[in-house]
Write a structure and sequence with these properties.
Largest sheet: 11 strands, mixed
Distance between the termini: 49 Å
Radius of gyration: 19 Å
Number of strands: 32
Oligomer: single chain
Shape: globular
Length: about 250
């Protein structure tokens, strides 16, 4: 027997049916023709668009957690999570409250999207990716398997972040009260690309249409339209004409 816990105040569109053992809480609004798997949990006030697929064991609208020593101790009423039309959320995905995910976004299995994150339309969040709180991810980006986007980062439109890229936001590594004045993640400008296993230090800017080679340590700003690589990175040359964003025909 299929057991579904559906709050009386939840609204489900035509053609939408939750899977077995799913829990849909108060004031959730789900559009029409959505596919919801088994053991899915959707927290109060979450809004989900039309034609969305949500796979088994995924959680949407999860309230933030705060350890006693966390630097994030704000007390406030978190906004609802919002999922746009035609999105796909894989198995064991966790999307926190205050997230806004645009239409046609794929969030793959085991990915985590923290509170107060915005993700633009047609972006891909790969398998096991973590996007920490207070980040902005643009349109038509690719964040590939197990890359880590630290809090306070900005990734603009058409960016590519390869597997296992690691970003940081604290040059003081958890010590000295001065650090609270300087938290800043990376910024990747429009069309920027970062190769696999690269590490980006706090506050560093990858310029528009720039490329960082695999295995690089970005300890300085990277100029737009240029290729940088190494540990630490140095300028290698220009991005080839055929690879420039303006020549891809995507817009």
């Amino acid at each position: 027997m299929e057991m579904i816990n559906l709050a009386l105040t939840a609204e489900l569109g035509k053609g939408t049916k939750p899977g077995p053992f799913s829990v849909i809480m108060d004031n959730v609004i789900i559009g029409r023709d959505c596919r919801i798997g088994s053991h899915v949990v959707i927290y109060p006030k979450t809004r989900i668009g039309h034609g969305v697929r949500i796979d088994d064991h995924t959680v949407i609208g999860k309230p933030p957690m705060r350890a006693p020593r966390s630097i994030f101790q704000e007390e406030k009423e978190w906004k609802e999570a919002v999922i746009g039309d035609e999105c796909i959320l894989g198995t064991h995905v966790v999307v926190y409250r205050g997230c806004e995910i645009g239409s046609h976004v794929l969030v793959a299995d085991h990915a985590s999207v923290r509170e107060e994150v915005q993700i633009g339309e047609y972006t891909i969040i790969g398998r096991g990716v973590t996007v920490e709180n207070k980040c902005t991810i643009g349109r038509k980006c690719k964040l590939e398997t197990q890359c880590y986007i630290t809090a306070y980062s900005v990734v603009e439109d058409y960016c590519f972040i390869a597997p296992m890229v690691t970003t940081t936001n604290d040059n003081y590594m958890g010590r000295d009260e001065e650090r609270f004045k300087h938290f800043k993640g990376m910024t990747v400008k429009r069309g920027g690309r970062i190769g696999a296993n690269s590490t980006i230090l706090p506050g560093k800017i990858i310029g528009p249409d720039a490329m960082v080679g695999a295995g690089s340590l970005v300890a300085r700003h990277v100029k737009g339209g240029k290729c940088f690589l190494g540990n630490p990175v140095r300028k290698f040359g220009d991005v080839p004409k055929g690879q420039r964003l303006e020549n891809q025909g995507w817009e």
